[in-house]
Amino acid sequence: MSPPVRMTRSVGVAAPLAEVWDRVTAPAGINDELAPYLTMTMPARWRAGTIATVPVGEPLGRAGLRLAGLIPVEYDDLFLVAVTAPTMFHERSEMLTARVWEHRRELVGLADGFTRVTDEVTMVPRFPLPGRGMHALIDALFAHRHRRLRAWADTRSGCSGPSQA
Fold it and tell me: Residues 21-55: pLDDT tens digits?
């Protein structure tokens, strides 16, 4: 079995905590972070929900990940361990490529209406994969997501926020 791959990344965005929370927990916001490379579908029962409104502590079903919104490339059997609105969610799921995909996102309100978003990911690959390569891939995915989130916040506020940590 491959060893776990761990990554932590933070970004400051120019938007208040409540607005960032609404954005990062909604399917439209998640898909905007992943665009244009990936899209993620919510399980059928929860398509109208958000991370903040679906049940915690029970399987939610399978979310599909599609390359460019078209080609199925991965799935995520969603399971929320904890949600503390508006500051944290913790997902621990199984994926096609991962025995464990654990994603914890924390939001902290900062001065002047800014918010710090921190993602911690632990992945236990299902197949023997080079750890450095997986770390680089996950880090690149979340760097992209943070750039997209920051661009959304900068567009809505017309300013730039604190730099990435």
Answer: 999 999 999 999 999 999 999 998 888 899 999 99
Element (H, E) at 14: none
**DSSP per-residue letters across 49-94:** --TTTSPSSSEEEEEEEEETTTEEEEEEEEEEEEEETTTEEEEEEE
List Cβ neighbours of 28 (8 Å cut-off, separation of 6 or more): none
**In this structure, which amino acid lies at residue 85?**
A
Give the chain's largest Cα–Cα span.
47
Instruction: Using alpha carbons, select from 139, 141, 142 the residue that is nearest to residue 131.
Output: 139
Kindly tell me if the per-residue pLDDT of 163 is higher than 70.
Answer: no
Cis status, amide bond into 86, omega within 30 of 0:
yes
Buried b / exposed e over 1-19, threshold 16 CB at 10 Å, is: ebebbebebbbbbbbbbeb
In contact, 41 and 63? CB cutoff 8 Å:
yes
**pLDDT confidence of residue 158:** 62
C-alpha distances out from residue 134 to 34, 66, 71, 91, Å: 17, 19, 21, 19
